[in-house]
Structure formats: structure tokens, C-alpha cells
Predict the 3D structure of the following.
Amino acid sequence: MDSVTQLFFGDGAGWFTAPALIGTLGYVIRMLLTTLLGGDGHGGMGGDGGGHDGGAGHHDGDGVGGHWGATMLSVQGVLTFAMGFGWGGLGAYRGAGWSAVASIFVAVACGIAFLALLVTLLRATNRLQSSGNLNLNQFVGTTAEAYTSIPSAGSGRGQISAVVGDRQRYIYAVAEGEEIPARARLQVVRANGDNTVTVRRA
């Protein structure tokens, strides 16, 4: 037991082990919650049991930067970077026997690589699972939750989650007025021609 503790936490290895365990445990908890509660356990890849719906996949107008911003600020983004950073750094520090400084560079590179992979998967999932025939007008008047923060009017878009027809949907949204923080309750006021909906605080 002492040898295991020394391996993962001795000589500064804990700086890599801790984020690795936190990130991995976070994913396990999210998957369990998904299984038990039927929620979105993928922090952006979920939806009505599997993926994004509606206009989420049709528009890449905000490009990679938009996906990077939303992903890095999401819970899954933090967990993903933590896993990449932790396991990558631990592999370099303990597995390859590199110095702490070199291992930190490897850890950061692995964290960024994990995030890049996540963004790529999210974009691919959005494109593949976008139905193209979802009527956004059915969301008008419903109460939803801001999945990511939604910039103030004219400053960009975010994502919301709403339950329509007993299915949880994730769609892009723009604010009617001031910025709306993530997890805030909101109301959908209208559907837009660019596969987004306009929302305001409920």
C-alpha cells in the first residue's frame, strides 16, 4: 500500500494524480447520474438520450472558437482537461521518468489535446444527429434552462436545454436583452430564421 501511495502521490506526483482522479471520478458520477436519472451525462453530447437536436448542428458560424469557448467553460470541459492533464503528466513523470517541469508541459499538452478531441466529437455529433426538420416554433413559450451562458443581445449565442414532448432538447439560443448566466431559468420568446431561438430570463 505504501508503494502505491508513493507511486501516485510521492515526490510531487500528487499534482498530476489529483486532477486525473477528479476528472475520471467526475465522468463516472455523470454517467451514473445519466443512468439513474436519465439526464445529460455527456455535458453537451447528450440530449434526448443521445445527442443534440435541431439547429445545433447546422450552423458552425461561430466556428471552432465558439465551440472551444462553450466547451472549456462547461463541466465536461473542465473534467476533460483534468483527465488529460493528470494522466498525461503522471505518465511522463512516473512512466517516462521525466522531470517535473517537462512533465507539466506534457500534462498541459495532453489536457489541450483531450479538449480538442472533445470539441471535434461535439461538432461531429451535432452534424450527424441534427435532424434538420425540428420545428423550433414548438419551443416558443416553454420554460427552459441555460445550458451555457448566453451573451447579451447581438453578442453571440449560447445553448439551452428544454423538454418538449417528453424529450430533452439542446438548441442554440440568443438573448433578448442582457447576458443570461448558465443554469438560469428562462423563457423562449420566439424562433429565428438561423435555427436559433430568442430567450429571456423567466
